[in-house]
C-alpha cells in the first residue's frame, strides 16, 4: 500500500523499513521502531477510557445536549481505537513473517479495516465541530439557543445525521485501493524471511486521476476546510467565554452582595463553576485543530505534488501523525475527570460506590427553593451569558 495514507496505510512500510534502516538514524526512524508497541498501548487506554465515557455520559443525570454529542464522539473514538488496535496486531505479525496473514482473506480484511479507520476518524472530527457550534450558540445566543437548538432532540438528530452522512461521503475511499499479488522476492528482501505461495498486499488503483481526485477531496473537504472552520469556531468560543466571564464578574459585584438565601448561594456557586465546561471543550477543540490542520495541509500537498511529495515528506511523519491522532482520541477521559466535577462525581458513584454512596442523588431542594429558582427571569440568563443549568453540558 502507498506509504502516505492515514490511520493504517503507512504502518506497514515504516515497520518493514525499520528492519533495515541505516545505523545513522533520525528521530523519526527511531520512532518507527516503537510506533507499534506505543500505539497499541494508546489504543488499549483509549478503548477502555471511551467505554467509561459512554457509560458515564449516558446516565440520566448527565443527559444534556453537549453530553449527547460527546457520547457520539466517544463511540467513534472507541471504534477507532479498537479497529486500529486490531490493525496493529495484524501488521506486527505480518512483519514477523506469519504467512497466513499475507493471504487474500486477511488482506481483504486489512482493506476494510484501513478505510473504516478513516471513516471513524472523520465521524469523530465532524462531531467535534458540531460540539463547537452548539457550545458557541449557547454562549453567544443563550435564550434563542435554549428555545430552538440547545435541546436533547437536536443533539440526537445531529448524531444520527453524522453517522449516516459521513460513511456515504467516505465511500470513494474504498475505490482507490485494491488487493494485489506481490512479488515474494520483494517481501523476502524487506522482511528478511522466506514465505511460500502467493502473497497479497494492498495497492492503489491504476488510475492516477481517481487517486488524485480522492486525495483532493480528502485533503480539502475532510481535513483542511473543517480544520479552518474549527479554528474560527475555537477563536469565537474563546472570545465568547471571556465576554461571559466578564459579565459574570459584573453580575457578582452588583448582585452578589444581596445574596442571602441558600438557593441563591447555590445558584452563585453554579455560576462560578459553569465556565469549566467551556474551558474543557476549548482544550478538546484546540487539540483537535493541532492534529487535524497539519494533516489536512499534508494531504493537500500530496494531491498537488503527487507521490514524490508523499514519499519524501509525508511518509517520514506518517506514523507520528497517526500516533498523535490516537492520543488525541484517548485523552478525553482525563480531561473530563479533571475539569468536570459532575462527570467525576458520576464516575465515582458508578465505579467506586463505596467512596461516595449518594453522589448520583442530587441535593434535595425544598419547594420554596425550587420556586425561587424557577421565578428567575430570562434576563438573568442574558446577564450571565449562558443557558439555564438544565441545558448546560457540564
Automatic annotation (TrEMBL):
Signal sequence, renumbered to the chain: none
Compartmental location: Membrane
GO MF: G protein-coupled peptide receptor activity
InterPro entries: 7TM_GPCR_serpentine_rcpt_Srw (IPR019427), GPCR_Dmsr-1 (IPR053219), GPCR_Rhodpsn (IPR000276), GPCR_Rhodpsn_7TM (IPR017452)
Principal cellular location given in the protein's record: membrane
Pfam families membership: 7TM_GPCR_Srw
Annotated keywords: Membrane, Transmembrane, Transmembrane helix
Presence of keyword Transmembrane: yes
Membrane-spanning residues: 34-56, 68-90, 110-134, 155-176, 213-238, 280-306, 326-351
Domain G-protein coupled receptors family 1 profile: 49-336
Database matches in SUPFAM superfamilies: Family A G protein-coupled receptor-like
GO cellular component, one term: plasma membrane
PROSITE patterns: G_PROTEIN_RECEP_F1_2
Protein name: G-protein coupled receptors family 1 profile domain-containing protein
Gene: Cni-egl-6
Amino acid at each position: 500500500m502507498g506509504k502516505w495514507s492515514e490511520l493504517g496505510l503507512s504502518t506497514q512500510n515504516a515497520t518493514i523499513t525499520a528492519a533495515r534502516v541505516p545505523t545513522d538514524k533520525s528521530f523519526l526512524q527511531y520512532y518507527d521502531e516503537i510506533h507499534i508497541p506505543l500505539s497499541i498501548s494508546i489504543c488499549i487506554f483509549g478503548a477502555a477510557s471511551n467505554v467509561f465515557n459512554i457509560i458515564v455520559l449516558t446516565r440520566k443525570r448527565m443527559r444534556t445536549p453537549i453530553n449527547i454529542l460527546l457520547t457520539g464522539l466517544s463511540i467513534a473514538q472507541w471504534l477507532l481505537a479498537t479497529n486500529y488496535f486490531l490493525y496493529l496486531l495484524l501488521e506486527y505479525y505480518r512483519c514477523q513473517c506469519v504467512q497466513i496473514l499475507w493471504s487474500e482473506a486477511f488482506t481483504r480484511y486489512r482493506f476494510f479495516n484501513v478505510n473504516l479507520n478513516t471513516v471513524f476518524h472523520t465521524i469523530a472530527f465532524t462531531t467535534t465541530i458540531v460540539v463547537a457550534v452548539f457550545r458557541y450558540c449557547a454562549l453567544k445566543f443563550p435564550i434563542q439557543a435554549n428555545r430552538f437548538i440547545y435541546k436533547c432532540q437536536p443533539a440526537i438528530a445531529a448524531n444520527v445525521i453524522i453517522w449516516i452522512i459521513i460513511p456515504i461521503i467516505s465511500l470513494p475511499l474504498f475505490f482507490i485501493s485494491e488487493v494485489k499479488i506481490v512479488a515474494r522476492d520483494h517481501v523476502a528482501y524487506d522482511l528478511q524471511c522466506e514465505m511460500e505461495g502467493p502473497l497479497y498486499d494492498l495497492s492503489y488503483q491504476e488510475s492516477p486521476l481517481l487517486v488524485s481526485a480522492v486525495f483532493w477531496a480528502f485533503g480539502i473537504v475532510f481535513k483542511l476546510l473543517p480544520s479552518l472552520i474549527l479554528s474560527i469556531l475555537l477563536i469565537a468560543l474563546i472570545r465568547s467565554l471571556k465576554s461571559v466571564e466578564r459579565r459574570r464578574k459584573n453580575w457578582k459585584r452588583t448582585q452578589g452582595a444581596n445574596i442571602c438565601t441558600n438557593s441563591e448561594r447555590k445558584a452563585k456557586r453554579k455560576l462560578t463553576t459553569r465556565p469549566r465546561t467551556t474551558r474543557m471543550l476549548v482544550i478538546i477543540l484546540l487539540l483537535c485543530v493541532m492534529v487535524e490542520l497539519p494533516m489536512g495541509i499534508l494531504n493537500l500537498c500530496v494531491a498537488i505534488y503527487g507521490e514524490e511529495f508523499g514519499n519524501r515528506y509525508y511518509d517520514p511523519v506518517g506514523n507520528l501523525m497517526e500516533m498523535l491522532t490516537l492520543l488525541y482520541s484517548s485523552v478525553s477521559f482525563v480531561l473530563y475527570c479533571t475539569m468536570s466535577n459532575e462527570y467525576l462525581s458520576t464516575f465515582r458513584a458508578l465505579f467506586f460506590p463505596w467512596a461516595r454512596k449518594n453522589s448520583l442523588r442530587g441535593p434535595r431542594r425544598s419547594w420554596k427553593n425550587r420556586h425561587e429558582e424557577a421565578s428567575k427571569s430570562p434576563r438573568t440568563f442574558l446577564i450571565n451569558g449562558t443557558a439555564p443549568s438544565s441545558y448546560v453540558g457540564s
